[in-house]
Amino acid sequence: MIGTAPGRRIPGARTLGRLADQLRQHWLPVAVSAPMLVVVPLLVVFTLYMTFVQGLPTEPGYTIRHWLEVRRPYLLFTVIPNTLILAFGSALISLAFGVPLSWLINRTRLNFRSLAVVCIGLVVIVPGFVQAMAWQMLVNPTSGILNKSIESFTHHTVDITVNSLLGMAWVLGLALTPAVFFMVSGAMRSLNSELSEAAAVARISGMRTVLQIELPLLWPAILGAGLYTFMTAIAIFEVPAMLGGGGGKLGVLSTELFYAVQPITPVPEIDYGAAGVYGSLIMVPSFFAMYFYLRALGSFHGYAVVTGRGYASRPTDLGRAKYLAIGFLWLYLVLALVLPLLVLIWASLQVNFQPLSTETISNLTLRNFAQFFPAMGGWRPLLHTMALMATVSVAVMLVSFMISWLVIRTKLRFRGAIDVTVFSSHAIPAIAIGFDLYLAALSLGRWIPLAGTLLVIGFAHAIATLAPATRITNAALLQIHPQLAEAAQICRARESIAMSKVMVPLIKSSLLYGGLWTALLSAREVTMALFLVGRDNVVFSVGIWELWRTGSQGLAASAALLLLAIIGAVAAITMGLAKRIGGEANGIWI
Amino acid sequence: MLSIKALEKSYWDGDRPIPAVRSVSFDVGRGEIYTLLGPSGCGKTTIIRCLAGLETPDGGEIWLGGRQVFSTLADVNLPAMDRNVGMVFQSYALWPHMTVFENVAFPMRYGPEKISRSTVRTRVMAALEMVQMQEFADRPAPMLSGGQQQRVALARALVYEPDVLLLDEPLSNLDARLRVQTRSLLRSLVKRLEITTLCVTHDQEEALAFSDRIAVIRNGRILQAGPPKAIYEKPNDIDVANFLGEMNFFPARADGLDEAGRLRLCTRFGTILLGSGARAPQAETSGQVWVTIRPHHVVVKACAGTPSPNCFEGRVEAIEFLGSRRRCSIGIGTETCTVELSEVGFNEGSTVLIEFPEQHLGVIVREA
Fold it and tell me: What's the average model confidence in pLDDT over A474-480?
């Protein structure tokens, strides 16, 4: 529903009267969604405002000196190029894996396709910083398992390292591949096979058909996925922070922002203005990318023939190339899932991390699993994370449902603007959300004790997950025939009844999936939590991060494995539940 | 009972308004069945949705059961839940997660008035009995056939005794045989309950069989309104004539009245005479017109004797077999007349006499 323009007439007294009528009529969803609709634009404005203040937000007067800092050679010739290389690099790597994988699984007769989808889904549950931890242990010249294994065969030193721009792009690209895969799969599935068959009948070769017919039709979806990964990569903090060598050797905008506010060496002055500039520099290209992303989606709907009449999806037979395809699928899964998991398990069984050898195998121990809780300061971080997973997912799905209701199911005048506003929150980088809320909590501290509470972290997670959650609820509401909700109105039911008794039961499996998604994002999130963490609100991901940063690789690895197990269990239970309750909503009704 | 005055509604395509309803007015009396008939996209569904409160009109007034529910002048716009209308949607819109009973009970459980559990039960069962669905009360709504769903939707629309019943293409999702059955059931039920009914359809047969009055709509305007027979036989517009079924059109010139007071219509194949009793009083007596007649009203005789008035010689060009009847194309002069007969006693190529009975002839002014 992006791009639905509200009424374009010039508002007069009567129009305003009608608007007031509409607001009264839909008071419940308006009231529930209003806070988020206010906060999202405020965050953008606040970030920009920060770039013009003197030192602290409380100091009087404005300056453009922070913007002049951009001219600094370090920023201009190191940080910005680094950021762009990382963003483009990881977008390219994720496309190079994700698009062929999606084609193989959706358009060919490969065996075990649904198993492969589950495995690709499993990659999603591994947080980016855990991926980075694993690759740090796999590939580095001093102790990397892969380096040392190759050295033992070839007797040459292997210098490759993951602590480089290419290494960061590699890890990030692998982690973002599932996003590309799932975003492109929808278009792959709906592509009508008759279009390719028409080419085959016209004696065009298979490869040429893929390149000349299928690829151009899929192009908008691929472009959209590419822009999405670009937006994510340009703003990501946890991977470059883990692999950039800590001290900012390979600075990108997000790490520069972090260290401007949370300097590694305790410097008295915190550079808010500079942080605002870095945040804006991330945000501006993200907004551009989002604009093109929406345009790409829009032009995708233009290809009516893709799903048109006589729809038929007949998979391609790969013939002998099948083995190549299976090899490619396995290559990805080994790189993105098997190797990282194995190295985490390996590290979790050692007190001090050692490469593979007969000597180290005999020293394996389960001690780490008993010790990481005390090292983190007890059970509280884990309980905090679980509390966040539960509350953030419920709250976000409630708000998302209300927003989607307004956007899809009402004729509210500015519903198009609401949709764009919510979606644009996706272009605000997590690091900027964390920074803004950190400052807001500081400045509001006199009136509301927000700083250092779990609430402020939950709020940050809610803002960050709102855009994907509303995509899920929008899609769910669009699937339900509008007359089902209208019938409730005609039957004299209040709006709250139409929502709770008619719509929610019909889309409950989507709500459950959406809740799962937000809970997962909340559990794996570390960037915003790092900004907002205090003494009393440490969450599990931050606990792992700190263990790793202080050099306790074994403890961090064992804690990360527990996090993965918890996320995996929650996902499995929710999916099972959704499958059980979801049956009735399918069929002719949606 | 139901009254619409100067209703206006446009949709917006960017900055360009697309008028869907243009100054539509009509009244429906208590217990009357009024049908809006027109092709898809003519604005008829928009009218019914404005009435229900699902769309907000741009202008005009709507009165339901003596209450003003919408008016731009008085700045009144009641939401759908306060209008007390019953509606059967084109898709039936039965809630798939509820049983038949729960669907029908919904308007009373969650409506404005407080109704006791036992009353709800009695009234729901009574409504289901009315549509002969009482045995299916506990069945989940998706486990019903199309016709059954339609009847449950009707029970749900009637159970709270609304002032007005709105039917949006109520029969279009049923197969042909079931449609005829359901149509007569629907009509007898609505007549028995004496509920004011507004129906929307694109099916002319359904409209003719079901309604007390029909309004033919095109491009958001009412072209003609009146009882089914009058509209069918004496359309005053070429679109109306075409939409209600096949029609013969002969271009003619009205050439004043003859000594007997009959209107002289000069066609390419001869003069047709129309007595004063057979034509509308306001009909033009001069100028360019179309002479119209339905194919089944044309009488075909074997060729014999001297031609009587409105009788012309023609040559049978083609005969098509349509099952219950035959469709013949008969050339008269340079014109071709379509005739429908139940039996034919002639062959292709025969010469026949065709007669246009005066009482079935119509005259429509032909625009330059």
Answer: 86
Q: What is the pLDDT of residue A360?
A: 78
Are A506 and B97 within 8 A, CB to CB? yes
pLDDT tens-digit map of B277-333: 666 655 666 788 889 999 999 998 876 666 677 889 899 999 998 888 899 999 998
The predicted-structure confidence for A12-27, as pLDDT tens digits, reads as follows 666 777 788 888 889 9
Q: Who contacts A221 (Cβ-Cβ below 8 Å, separation ≥6)?
A: A183, A184, A186, A187, A188, A296, A300
Query: What sign results for the dihedral spanned by CA atoms A411, A416, A417, A421?
Result: positive
Q: Which residues pair with B76 in a beta bridge?
A: B71
All residues of chain B having their beta carbon less than 8 Å from the beta carbon of residue A493 are 81, 106-107, 110-111
- In terms of residue numbers, what domain contains A507? 27-53+96-303+323-589
- Give pTM, 2 decimals: 0.85
Residues belonging to chain A with any Cβ–Cβ distance to chain B shorter than 8 Å: 5, 7-9, 14, 17-18, 21, 25, 411, 481, 483-484, 486-494, 497, 501-502, 505-506, 584-585, 587-589
pLDDT at A3: 37
The DSSP H or E segment spanning B63 is strand B59-64
Mutation target to probe the A interface, by most A beta carbons within 10 A, among B48, B58, B77, B81 is B81
What pLDDT score does B182 carry?
87
B97–A contact, CB cutoff 8 A: yes
**CATH numeric code, B2-240:** 3.40.50.300
CB burial of residue A16 (10 Å; 0-12, 13-18, 19+): exposed
Residue A134 near residue A150 (C-beta atoms within 8 A): no
Query: Does residue A517 register a pLDDT over 80?
Result: yes
Structural domain total, chain A: 1
Pairing of β B263-267 and β B270-274: antiparallel
> Is A107 within the bounds of a domain?
yes
Strands B67-71 and B76-77, how do they pair?
Answer: antiparallel
A72 near A195, Cβ under 8 Å? Answer: no
Predicted pLDDT at B239: 86
End-to-end CA distance of chain B: 41
Tens digit of pLDDT for each residue in B182-222? 888 889 999 999 999 999 999 998 999 999 999 999 999 99
A492 vs B79: CB contact, 8 Å cut-off? no
Average pLDDT taken over every residue of chain A = 83
3-state secondary structure of A203: coil
Residue ranges of domains in chain B: 2-240, 247-365
Q: Which of residues 145-204 of B touch A (CB under 8 A)?
A: 156-157, 160
- Is domain B247-365 in CATH 3.50.50.60, yes or no? no
Q: Is residue A338 part of a domain?
A: yes
| B82 at A interface, C-beta within 8 A | yes
CATH number at residue A567: 1.10.3720.10
**Distance from the B115 Cα atom to the nearest Cα atom in chain A, whole angstroms:** 14
Is residue A409 domain-resident? yes
Quick one: closest CA in B to A583, which residue?
B97
Contacts of A494 in chain B (CB under 8 A): 81, 110
User: Is A138 within a domain?
Assistant: yes
By the 8 A CB rule, do A260 and A278 touch?
A: yes
Question: Taking CB atoms and an 8 Å cutoff, what residues of chain A touch B143?
Answer: none
- Mean pLDDT for B25-49 is 93
Angle (CA) B19-B21-B26 rounded to 5° is 160
DSSP reduced 3-state for B226: strand
Between CA B31 and CA A359 the distance in angstroms is 95
pLDDT in tens, A405-451: 999 888 888 888 898 889 888 888 888 899 889 888 887 877 888 88
Helix (H) or strand (E) holding B129: helix B117-130
- At residue B73, what are phi and psi to the nearest 5 degrees? -65, -50
Query: Alpha-carbon distance B356 to B307, whole Å?
Result: 12
